[in-house]
């Protein structure tokens, strides 16, 4: 039984990271209808920004986290200003190609600066959670607890921001009716920039939470972004609760697949689950679940 | 108050507006008649800054609106209640209304008063304030749209086809609300296909056909005109 719960814990850890990445992706898609393939590069950029802050600047983990969020939000806003806002009236294919171009560009820049080697960000609190090991026989590295707690805190903060603040309301208004939002005097440029900033910051935080138990390398965002797309398709494109639940589903499927089937098969299983769920429910798991 | 001079708008090679000149004086209720595709909505979208004119000028109280952002135009006191309502369907009625006051977010006290006035004008909205706007009937959604526009504190209110698709009794109710809004001091430019009903409440009217103004006059004159009667009233 404890092996089962061990997988649940692992699944929630992975799911937390996926959910945070998918949230940013779904926000941008819901509001601007841009399938932002370069979102994976933001995830990677966040990891390198934190790596830079902690090695070159000697920042501690939490300072590095904030630094990465700010830098990556800046990169996301720049990409909106310089690329996506200029393609607003062009066919959707142009957004997609531009996004892939951006992905490759950001990846190439990271590789030029830091090389193709793997890097590590040290765990801020090494070790495992003793209480869980003694009382439940579960091995829970502290970093995994930080990932889950961090994701939950961010999700709650995002939810409160979107539903309780005027700026949050302008984001939802733009998602629900772009022209209506314009007519009440909402500045769509500003909302687009805020949305990209949030999506970049979420991707960066997800990366900085994740890399102490993983590795930093230029292509690290690729598989994550692919899975994030799987998640937002599963959850219903543009749906915030769908992104969270979809992320958890994929995280759990992966960790159970890795344990009960084979570690080598975990990505296969995640994508097989996508194909299966979509063939049964082409509209996603949460169709019409209002943003 | 509001003045368009030679407004010309192209969609690609299609000319939607061809030298349209109209003016609405302070306190007036002016009706813009015209069939589907005559250019009424194009004119309104151009006035509120959502479409860019090819030629001509639009002035609000002497201020040139050319190149102004939609948000700046709302702030200047020109609010557009669009055809098809363009509500935020997943948000509550109250939130829709409050977003109408977005440009006045630094003066929430006055917005509370206006919200109360809107609820006074449309009591059903107070009852349904927590329901998603998308769940309301067409007439009620139109009330939300008008209420949302009023929350923007318009000096000039553009109303695009508020009666479209509504039952006759509801049309009457909506047009009475428009008349009351005008009587309370708001200048109104109203686009309508429902000519007979609209002319009853208008001070003046224009007729738009194929992107051009073909007639202007008092409601009584237009109601007597044989061509108008045939085209818009069916009698």
UniProtKB/TrEMBL annotation, chain A:
Protein's membrane topology: Multi-pass membrane protein
Residue ranges crossing the lipid bilayer per the database entry: 12-32, 39-57, 63-84, 96-116, 142-162, 183-209, 242-262
Subcellular location: Cell membrane
Keyword DNA damage (UniProt): no
GO cellular component: plasma membrane
Species of the source: Enterovirga rhinocerotis
Protein name (Swiss-Prot/TrEMBL): Amino acid/amide ABC transporter membrane protein 1 (HAAT family)
Family classification: Belongs to the binding-protein-dependent transport system permease family. LivHM subfamily.
Automatic annotation (TrEMBL), chain B:
SMART domains named in the record: AAA
PROSITE patterns named in the record: ABC_TRANSPORTER_1, ABC_TRANSPORTER_2
GO BP annotation list: L-amino acid transport
Span of domain ABC transporter: 2-235
Cross-referenced InterPro entries: AAA+_ATPase, ABC_transporter-like_ATP-bd, ABC_transporter-like_CS, BCAA_Transport_ATP-bd_LivF, P-loop_NTPase
GO MF term set: ATP binding; ATP hydrolysis activity; branched-chain amino acid transmembrane transporter activity
Keywords: Amino-acid transport, ATP-binding, Nucleotide-binding, Transport
Similarity comment: family membership: Belongs to the ABC transporter superfamily.
Protein known as: Amino acid/amide ABC transporter ATP-binding protein 2 (HAAT family)
Species per Swiss-Prot/TrEMBL record: Enterovirga rhinocerotis
Lineage: Bacteria, Pseudomonadati, Pseudomonadota, Alphaproteobacteria, Hyphomicrobiales
């Amino acid at each position: 039984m404890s092996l089962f719960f061990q997988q649940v814990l692992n699944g929630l850890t992975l799911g937390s990271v996926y959910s945070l990445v998918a949230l940013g992706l779904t926000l941008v898609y819901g509001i601007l209808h841009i399938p932002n393939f370069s979102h994976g590069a933001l995830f990677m950029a966040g990891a390198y920004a934190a790596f830079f802050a902690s090695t070159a600047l000697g920042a501690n983990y939490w300072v590095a986290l904030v630094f990465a969020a700010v830098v990556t939000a800046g990169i996301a806003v720049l990409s909106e200003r310089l690329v996506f806002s200029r393609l607003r009236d062009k066919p959707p294919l142009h957004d997609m190609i531009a996004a892939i171009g951006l992905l490759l560009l950001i990846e190439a820049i990271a590789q030029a600066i830091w090389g193709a080697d793997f890097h590590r960000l040290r765990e801020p609190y090494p070790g495992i959670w003793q209480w869980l090991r003694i009382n439940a026989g579960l091995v829970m590295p502290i970093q995994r607890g930080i990932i889950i707690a961090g994701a939950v805190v961010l999700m709650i903060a995002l939810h409160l921001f979107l539903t309780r603040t005027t700026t949050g309301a302008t984001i939802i208004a733009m998602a629900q009716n772009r022209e209506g939002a314009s007519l009440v005097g909402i500045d769509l440029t500003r909302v687009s920039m805020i949305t990209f900033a949030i999506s970049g910051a979420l991707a960066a935080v997800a990366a900085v939470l994740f890399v102490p138990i993983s590795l930093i390398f230029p292509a690290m965002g690729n598989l994550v972004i692919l899975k994030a797309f799987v998640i937002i398709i599963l959850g219903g494109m543009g749906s915030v609760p769908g992104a969270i639940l979809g992320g958890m589903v994929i995280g759990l499927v992966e960790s159970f697949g890795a344990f009960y089937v084979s570690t080598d098969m975990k990505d296969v299983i995640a994508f097989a689950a996508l194909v299966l769920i979509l063939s049964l429910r082409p509209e996603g798991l949460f169709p019409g679940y209002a943003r | 108050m509001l003045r368009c001079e030679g407004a010309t708008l192209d969609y690609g090679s299609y000319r939607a507006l061809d030298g349209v000149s109209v003016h609405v004086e302070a306190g007036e209720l002016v009706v813009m008649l015209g069939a589907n595709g005559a250019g009424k909505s194009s004119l309104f979208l151009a006035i509120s800054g959502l479409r860019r004119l090819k030629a001509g000028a639009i002035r609000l109280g002497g201020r040139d609106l050319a190149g102004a952002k939609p948000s700046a135009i709302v702030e200047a006191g020109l609010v557009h209640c669009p055809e098809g309502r363009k509500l935020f369907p997943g948000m509550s009625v109250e939130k829709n209304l409050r977003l109408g006051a977005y440009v006045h977010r630094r003066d929430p006290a006055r917005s509370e008063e206006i919200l109360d006035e809107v609820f006074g004008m449309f009591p059903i909205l107070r009852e349904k304030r927590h329901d998603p706007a998308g769940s309301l009937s067409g007439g009620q959604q139109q009330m939300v749209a008008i209420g949302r526009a009023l929350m923007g504190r318009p000096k000039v209110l553009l109303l695009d086809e508020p009666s479209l698709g509504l039952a006759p009794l509801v049309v009457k109710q909506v047009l009475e609300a428009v008349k009351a809004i005008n009587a309370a001091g708001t200048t109104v430019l109203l686009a309508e296909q429902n000519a007979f009903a609209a002319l009853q409440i208008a001070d003046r009217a224009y007729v738009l056909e194929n992107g051009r103004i073909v007639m202007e006059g008092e409601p009584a004159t237009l109601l007597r005109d044989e061509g108008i009667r045939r085209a818009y009233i069916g009698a």
